[in-house]
Each structure stands twice: as C-alpha cells, then as structure tokens.
From TrEMBL:
GO terms for biological process: DNA-templated transcription initiation. Residues 118-169 form the RNA polymerase sigma factor 70 region 4 type domain. Residues 23-87 form the RNA polymerase sigma-70 region domain. The keyword Transcription applies. GO terms for molecular function: DNA binding; sigma factor activity. Belongs to the sigma-70 factor family. ECF subfamily. The keyword Transcription regulation applies. InterPro entries: RNA_pol_sigma-70-like (IPR039425), RNA_pol_sigma-70_dom (IPR014284), RNA_pol_sigma70_bacteroid (IPR014327), RNA_pol_sigma70_r2 (IPR007627), RNA_pol_sigma70_r4_t2 (IPR013249), RNA_pol_sigma_r2 (IPR013325), RNA_pol_sigma_r3/r4-like (IPR013324), WH-like_DNA-bd_sf (IPR036388). Keywords: Sigma factor, Transcription, Transcription regulation. It comes from Echinicola strongylocentroti. PANTHER family: RNA POLYMERASE ECF-TYPE SIGMA FACTO, RNA POLYMERASE SIGMA-70 FACTOR ECF SUBFAMILY. Pfam families: Sigma70_r2, Sigma70_r4_2. This is RNA polymerase sigma-70 factor.
Length: 183
C-alpha cells in the first residue's frame, strides 16, 4: 500500500466524510462499468457497488488492506459479482428442476393453465438464434459443447446467449405469469 492510500485509509477510519465522498466520486463509475461487465445487469451492478462503499464506510476500522485501495475495491466488486452469479445459478437449478418436474408430472396439466403457451410465446419473442440455443439446451437437453458443435459457434457464445435468454425469459415470465421465476 502506498503512502497516499495509507493516508486515505486513515482518514476513512477517522470517519472523514469528505474523503469518503471523494473516493466514491473517483471510483464509482469505473467500478459500476466493471460490475456490469460481469453481471450484465445495471441495477444489480449499482446495488453491488453501492453495497461495497457502504461496507467500506461501516467496516473501515476492521479492514486489513494490504494492496492499494483501488485494487481492494475492484477485488471486492469482483467477488460480490461472482457471489451474485453463483446465487443466480443455484436458484436457476432449482427453478429448472421445478419446471422439469411440472413438465414431467402427468398430474399437472400445463396446457389448461396456459403456462406452456406463455412459456412458448416468451421463447418465440427471443431473437431466433437465441431461441434455438435455448431450445437445444432446455427442450432437447443438449450440453453446451454439443450445441456449440451443432451450431458451429464457440462455447462462450452459447453460454452468453443462454444467459441473455434467461434474463429475457425471466422478465417476460414474471410479467405475464406474475411468477418470481429465476433461471
């Protein structure tokens, strides 16, 4: 940690609000862009970055920062972004399992409830390539590698398209079914 960061940290520990606000103005927009590059969601990114600054303000006297303050902030945002993505993935698995169970349960008639029509309509509203990738993954239960090979695209392209499809479908299904559906 350089001398300037040591002085900043000491001022923060002494609850110097002007130093905190200057630090916020200096790093907020860069941290926000950094977070958006990981989670692809502006609102979530804003929450993550604001929570980091809140955490810094509330816990600064307990923090042990060995690297630069800038490095600490970026690492903290990165860790929070990955935690957010991991939580989404866990909820995603649970919701996919629930949906699969509903689709496989002969006692649940999705056609009568209109859910299957709503899901199909939401998939039709996706861009064609994105919809195709989503169908291959979730309706034909193909692996990301198999989809990439079949469509002659990279695995990262498949992952990105699936991620974006999930965001669009989540928003569409929440709106039309009034569900809290997270893939």
């Amino acid at each position: 940690m350089n001398v300037q960061d040591k002085i900043l940290l000491k001022e923060l520990q002494e609850r110097n609000q002007e130093v905190f606000e200057a630090l916020f103005r200096e790093y907020y927009s860069g941290l926000l862009r950094f977070a958006e590059g990981i989670v692809f969601d502006e609102k979530v990114s804003e929450d993550i970055v604001q929570n980091i600054f809140l955490f810094l303000w509330e816990r600064v006297e307990y923090l042990v920062i060995t690297a630069s303050l800038k490095q600490y902030l970026y690492q903290a945002v990165k860790n929070r972004c990955f935690n957010h993505l991991r939580n989404i993935k866990i909820r995603d698995k649970h919701n996919v399992l629930y949906l699969e169970a509903c689709l496989n349960d002969r006692n649940v008639d999705l056609a009568d409830t209109g859910i299957s029509r709503t899901i199909e309509a939401s998939i039709l509203n996706l861009p064609p390539k994105m919809a195709e990738i989503f169908r291959l993954k979730y309706q034909h239960v193909k692996s990301i590698r198999a989809i990439a090979e079949e469509l002659e695209v990279s695995e990262n392209t498949v992952k990105t398209q699936l991620y974006r499809a999930k965001i669009k479908l989540r928003a569409s299904l929440q709106e039309s079914l009034n569900l809290h559906f997270v893939f």
